[in-house]
Amino acid sequence: YFFSFGCTECFFLAVMAFDRYLAICRPLHYPTVMTARLCTHLVVSCWVLGFLWFLIPIIIISQMSFCGSRIIDHFLCDTGPLLALTCKKAPVVKLAFSNLTLLPLVILFLFIMGSYALILRAVLKVPSAAGRKKAFSTCGAHLSVVSLFYGSVIVMYGSPTSEHEAGMQKIVTLFYSVVTPLLNPI
């Protein structure tokens, strides 16, 4: 689940950072660059890339055998709880999933931080305090969501699954999968 939803959310957060960059650093070009067609392409790309990224884990997991209880002690189908149900423990598979999770997270996080570094540089050049305040208020909400999302994902996936209690896993997963997307539009 994280692969499809989490990656999709990462792509959306990166697109939103790009949107903020254009609005603040290139305000005169914004209407000509950020057209309805480009917006549609960006949204569709986020969903498609998020789901395509999930195909690799689906293929790998579908080839594994499961034994014992077939009840996932989670409210969504995440790779950690699924791998816990496999008959043969596969550290190589866990390592591969960790790397597949980290790759888009790190790349998109660096893109977001790069966008905000350029925004910060542009905002600090604004001569009026009111202009700087308006620019910072535009970015503040998005940066809050980025911080909440990446903070909870790092807590969840930055350490081995076995270190988390089942209850804690559920709370953190609920946070990055429900709370941050709900806060995004706000």
Automatic annotation (TrEMBL):
Pfam families: 7tm_4. One of its GO terms (cellular component) is plasma membrane. The chain crosses the membrane at residues 38-60, 102-124, 136-158. It is found in: Cell membrane. PROSITE patterns: G_PROTEIN_RECEP_F1_1, G_PROTEIN_RECEP_F1_2. GO terms for molecular function: G protein-coupled receptor activity; olfactory receptor activity. Residues 1-186 form the G-protein coupled receptors family 1 profile domain. Keywords: Cell membrane, Disulfide bond, G-protein coupled receptor, Glycoprotein, Membrane, Olfaction, Receptor, Sensory transduction, Transducer, Transmembrane, Transmembrane helix. It is a multi-pass membrane protein. It comes from the Eukaryota. Its main location: membrane. InterPro entries: GPCR_Rhodpsn (IPR000276), GPCR_Rhodpsn_7TM (IPR017452), Olfact_rcpt (IPR000725), Olfactory_GPCR1 (IPR050939). Putative odorant or sperm cell receptor. This is Olfactory receptor family 11. The gene is OR11.
